[in-house]
Design goal:
The chain contains 4 helices and no strands.
Length: about 100
């Protein structure tokens, strides 16, 4: 059984942030983020078209970028949870709810 990409994206966004925050080693958080992106990207490419894969990858990277200014406005936990939820929803809608190709 494959792990849904919604779980991978949300988990790696939250996990990467927590690892970077708790260890103080930002590159370690980036490794978690990159690993999640690669795993999700491989599944997206198997399940969807190249255009959808590109859009989902852009959503994932955009969520990471958006979380930083959003954290200044609403706080770090709400920001990370919000972008993780949005990314997971996009992943589910575009790739996970469909049967693998």
């Amino acid at each position: 059984m494959r792990v849904p990409t919604a779980v991978i994206t949300a988990g790696s966004l939250i996990g990467g942030w927590q690892i970077a925050r708790r260890t103080g080693i930002r590159p370690l958080g980036a490794v978690v983020l990159a690993t999640g992106g690669v795993l999700a990207g491989r599944e997206w490419s198997r399940r969807t078209s190249p255009a959808v894969t590109t859009a989902l990858a852009a959503t994932y990277l955009g969520a990471f970028g958006l979380s930083h200014p959003l954290a200044r406005k609403i706080g770090p936990w709400p920001a990370v949870l919000a972008v993780s939820a949005l990314t997971a929803a996009a992943s589910y809608a575009a790739a996970d709810r469909r049967a693998p190709r």
